[in-house]
Amino acid sequence: MARSLNPRAWEMAVRQEPPTYCLGKCYVGPSSTSTAGYPIIEVRSSRAVVLRHIVKGPVSSLGQYLELGGMRGLEKALKMRRWEVIEEVKRSQLRGRGGAYFPTGLKWESAYRQRAPQKFVLVNGDEGDAGAYVDKFLMWWDPYLVIEGALIAAYAVGASKVYFYIRREYPEAINSVRRAVKELYEAGYAGPGASKGVPVEVEVHVGKGSYVVGEETAMINAIMGRRPEPMPRPPYPTERGLFGMPTVVNNVETLGQRALDH
Residue 117 CB: number of other CB atoms within 10 A? Predict the structure, then answer.
């Protein structure tokens, strides 16, 4: 169908070097980096959670996010002890949205219990499942929501740095997250000198286009500059992950749930 709709774009895609396997634009076809258009975003449940903002359009600034009630989850978390934050996430029964559906609170608890000089939070933005683009739009249209979730996770487990691993086919999401991080640094919500948030570094790492990197241990290898192949488990990333340190790897949508602000 895509070939018949736009033969020229189809021919360009077939001849492209290096090949790109998915642009996260399954809502248009054939798609390209220059293709415009957006999916129809609807909420059919009684209450929107992760889509509560983007169903109305992009959140384009930190000021707009704060007006929508942003950072309340983080503010609540900072008034609690770390283990209390984890217990609340466990009670919420929030589970990972990356496919395994593992209880998020148990993952955080595992990292929290480790004794190590450093700990990390890794946000898995290497969305590669066919037909999937929710992570892309959360990072592109509502990056503050995802970063807030990552900051809550960092505070809870005692992490010193947050990594966003975003696939290269999502340039809009990459730029949006970087811009949001800059704003949050300037506002004191993140960064080593954070005055009203969590004093952690937030770094955006751009992927190289390998689908297998969506697997958490392969992603850890990729960030460390190694061949992006999965590692045997145990030990699990929460025990020995990035640079040999305890690491919480959470999916974009998981962090966007903001369990503390339900």
Answer: 6
Q: How many CB atoms lie within 10 A of CB 70?
A: 23
> Could you read off the pLDDT of 37-89 as tens digits, one per residue?
677 777 888 888 888 888 889 999 999 999 999 999 999 999 999 999 999 99
Residue 106 lies in a domain: yes
pTM over 0.85: yes
Q: According to the model, what pLDDT value does residue 20 have?
A: 64
For residue 205, how far is the Cα from the chain centroid? 11
The pLDDT mean for the chain works out to 88
CA 114 to chain centre: 23
Indicate whether 18 belongs to any domain: no
Range of the domain at 104: 41-256
| Cβ-proximal residues to 77 (8 Å cutoff; 6+ apart), any chain | 85, 152, 155, 156, 260
pLDDT at 261: 58
Domain assignment present for residue 223? The answer is: yes
